[in-house]
Write a structure and sequence with these properties.
Two copies of one chain form a homodimer. Chain A is globular, with a radius of gyration of 20 Å. Chain A contains twelve helices and eleven strands. A seven-stranded mixed β-sheet of chain A has the order 1-2-9-6-5-3-4, sandwiched between helices. In chain A, strands 7-8 form a two-stranded antiparallel sheet. Chain A has a two-stranded antiparallel sheet with strand order 10-11. Chain A has two domains: about 180 residues, Rossmann fold, CATH 3.40.50.1970; about 180 residues, Dehydroquinate synthase-like - alpha domain (Dehydroquinate synthase-like, alpha domain), CATH 1.20.1090.10. The relative contact order of chain A is 0.11.
């Protein structure tokens, strides 16, 4: 058993730890210190559950001394396209159909979609029940593990309906990443890369050295990348839990990225792919506005490309991009708020002239 | 303009004031001190809106200097039977369809159902937007005004899906009560009466003197009853915002009451009617368990009857009552937690032997 790394997330009475390590999913000890629940509802999907659910259930049964009737599972349809009320309601139906109560523990076993829906269901069921995340994708481990954002999509916008709800623990089992397709690893790397430009130039340099090792899932750099990503996000979120200001820098690449996802229809590009391309767009916009050196924008584009992520967006037309970005929930009374770079490692949130945005979009899509 | 009474609700950074007075709904000054929103979405229903919406919109327009395009309205179908996801989604559709953002103010204009749904929608939309309640029923003024509970029903249970979400202000305009049918006034009085037995024997005595004046909506006693109800609830909620323990005493009468509502189908009896009858059942159960004098149980039954509320439940059969109460979300791993009285003015939460519950139900339904 490899010792796991802890990243503490300090949020007052809502503080919790992220455990990062290999094989955590099958270890009863990973649940030590949590209150014994009356029952457990594991929320997963038909792709992830066959790979991991059996070991997780066994660990839960041992950790909490619960019989099989007290550990239930509900499988949601896979993919961002199903991150909607219908899927969410499957969780409520399962919770109520199995006589779950306020001391039922909801466990999210899967990627960001499962985590968002299980977390939102836990936030709403009886106005809030305990929740633990077991993220099985790189993106979920470095992004959804910290911040407490949960949500479902609405036909008119992504993540429009949701809650801030903190888990009691996150178990990031690095071994689960071995079962992911290369495309999903790359998508996860987009969010890892993000933390460099917005907050940590040294980490960005480290990533330039290790990006291929990360894509190959080499354990030591992988653990380091997940840990550093969670630490940076924790620092930002700790200073701004409910997204008043600073936290917005975590959306670097996301304004453009969400427009790509919405414009193509959710699920066409992976979220991380859209963010990867969005970061290149945001970097070039920063460059065009005189905030970022061309050389640094080049480095960002090069690293995104080496992670095997797209660096050119779909040809939606600049007008459509702008329209979609104005609908984004981060827009403020119709004004798009971009996360731009003032050098590598420093992000600011500001509007940008439509003309400059158009020029970037015309060059990159 | 009559001066309004303020009841401060102390909840740290989520503190707010309840304004109680006549004609508040049409006063721009009632909104003073709140941040200017980017737009306003008034959530109401087809019964309430024709009576009050026009004056409210005019006051909002003046208070926040907003044009008519910035003050929108969405009407939800009336009644507890429609307190579901479909109605909730009408609010989300309206918010997104009108380009609302994080600085949009959601205003609930109506009774408890409108307040619960508007509040839950405000809690979830973009993970939380500002919210003000304008309760137009007595029940909503004395119950939903304090506590931050919002929810929708699920086919398997009432208020199963929801959030704790505090409003920024509550405007309890006593003049709105004049348009209510007598049956709704009586239902509201059930929640007023409740505060006596659980927390304030003197208030119970005051109610014995004034119950007919309250039913006749005499302004001075009405203002006093709303104020004292909100104060008592605020005291209880302030000590236990997220319902860890003490707050459960507010559910006096509700365990039986919810079983009545669920057993008959929501909407058959008004919530307050079910609670009125439920309080008599809970008082008699307290008496049977040796916690409450027969004379005090008699006083409770007499006051409930004088408020023109039912004191006998529907004949669902004791087994069905017990089954429904075990499904209640306040049950703990199948054990029903009753709010019982240890004398007038003092409530405790405890289980009760099934036999005693059956005997009470057989006598009272």
């Amino acid at each position: 058993m490899t010792p796991s790394t802890l990243v503490p997330i300090a949020l007052g009475e809502r503080s919790y730890d992220i455990h990062i390590g290999r094989g955590l999913l099958g270890q009863a000890s990973a649940w030590a210190g949590l209150a014994r629940p009356s029952s457990v509802m594991v929320v997963s999907n038909p792709v992830v559950a066959p790979l991991h659910a059996e070991r997780l259930h066994a660990a839960l049964a041992q950790a909490f001394d619960l019989g099989p009737a007290r550990i239930r599972q509900v499988l949601l349809p896979d993919g961002e396209a199903h991150k909607d009320w219908n899927s969410l309601n499957l969780v409520f139906d399962a919770l109520l159909g199995n006589g779950c109560d306020r001391r039922t523990l909801v466990v999210a076993l899967g990627g960001g979609v499962v985590g968002d829906m299980a977390g939102f269901a836990a936030a709403c069921f009886m106005r809030g029940v305990p929740f633990v995340q077991v993220p099985t994708t790189l993106l979920a481990q470095v992004d959804s593990s910290v911040g407490g954002k949960t949500a479902v999509n609405h036909p008119l916008g992504k993540n429009m309906i949701g809650a801030f709800y903190q888990p009691q623990r996150v178990l990031a089992d690095l071994d689960t990443l071995a079962t992911l397709p290369a495309r999903e690893i790359a998508a996860g790397l987009a969010e890892v890369i993000k933390y460099g430009p917005i907050a940590d130039a040294a980490f960005f340099g480290w990533l330039e050295t290790h990006v291929e090792a990360l894509a190959a899932l080499e354990p030591a750099p992988l653990a380091q990348a997940v840990k550093r990503s969670c630490e940076i996000k924790a620092q930002v979120v700790g200073a701004d839990e409910r997204e008043g200001g600073l936290r917005a820098i975590l959306n670097f690449g996301h304004t453009f990225g969400h427009a790509i996802e919405a414009g193509l229809g959710y699920g066409e590009w992976l979220h991380g792919e859209a963010v990867g391309c969005g970061m290149v767009m945001a970097a070039r916009l920063s460059q065009r506005l005189g905030q970022l050196d061309a050389a640094d924008a080049d480095r960002i584009e090069a690293l995104v490309a080496r992670a095997r992520l797209p660096v050119r967006g779909p040809a939606l037309g600049a007008d459509r991009y702008l329209e979609l970005m104005r609908l984004d929930k981060k827009a403020d009374a119709g004004e798009i708020r971009f996360v731009l770079l003032q050098g590598l490692g420093r992000a600011v949130v500001m509007p940008a002239p439509d003309d400059a945005v158009r020029e970037v979009l015309q060059a990159l899509s």
